[in-house]
Specification:
Elements: E1 16-18, E2 24-28, E3 32-39, E4 46-52, E5 55-60, E6 65-78, E7 84-87, E8 91-94, E9 99-114
Length: 115
């Protein structure tokens, strides 16, 4: 079935997906919940909510990501760069090709779009 020309998110009922993160855990025991509210027919675009408990990941981005933090605090450190501290209310974009670490200091809840 093809995606409708407009998807109203209040009408979606995302199924929670627990610990589906493919990144390598490098510190602590972080756990994730994905609530994917939309996935394009070809799977190239995904949006929803991501929740993660404290811990640290090694990350390698292959897609562009828009993030809007709703709760929590984390530190993203791109390889060879200074750490970036992100808190509730912050909006940011991660470009494809970014590698580094993502440390969740306080449980994070973020709205995301991968494209």
């Amino acid at each position: 079935m093809a995606n409708a020309p407009i998807t109203v998110l209040r009408d979606t009922q995302p199924m929670p997906v627990v610990d589906a993160c493919k990144w390598e855990r490098i510190e602590g025991d972080p756990h994730t919940v994905n609530l994917n509210a939309y996935t394009s027919d070809d799977g190239s675009k995904i949006m929803g909510t991501w929740i993660c408990t404290p811990g640290k990941w090694r990350v390698e981005y292959v897609k562009w990501e828009y993030c809007h933090f709703q709760e929590g605090y984390c530190i993203i450190t791109p390889d060879g760069m200074q750490p970036i501290h992100l808190r509730a209310g912050d909006i940011f974009v991660v470009e494809p090709g970014m590698t580094g670490t993502w440390e969740v200091v306080e449980t994070v809840r973020k709205y995301f779009v991968f494209a």
